[in-house]
Protein: Cytochrome c class I
Amino acid sequence: MTPTRTLLVLLAAFVAPSLFAADAAAIWKKQCAECHGKDGRGDTKIGRKRYISDLTNPELQAKFSDEQAAHSIKFGLKDAKGNVIMEPARRVSDQEVEALVAYVRTLKK
Ligand code: HEC
Structure:
């Protein structure tokens, strides 16, 4: 590998994840905080109406896997009666969904 190439690979490895993290925080603010709240507690108007769970609670976080969380973010969630309680995230790539899952895990207190 040429030195320039090595540098590019290093950049991709170290800079890209932090870019995704920044993306996830921005998406969270735009698309998720309305219900879940900025801090994930769900102490919002819609959150209270939908009996949203507190994502800062480690016990709640243990109840869903990363795969489940990714699925919910991509496809949304319905209640037992089939009503949509969480809309699917809009215009997000698979990488952004993954970054959002990682972001959700950081909300745990
Ligand atoms: C319209 C309100 C609403 C929006 C917007 C919303 N959610 Fe949710 N979310 C809910 C509700 C309601 C639940 C399920 C009830 C609960 O919290 O127990 C939920 C559950 C979750 C869960 C738990 C996963 C599971 O399968 O149980 C995760 C993770 C999550 N949301 C992430 C997100 C992310 C990330 C976004 C933004 C892309 C988002 N939510 C946007 C309402 C919303």
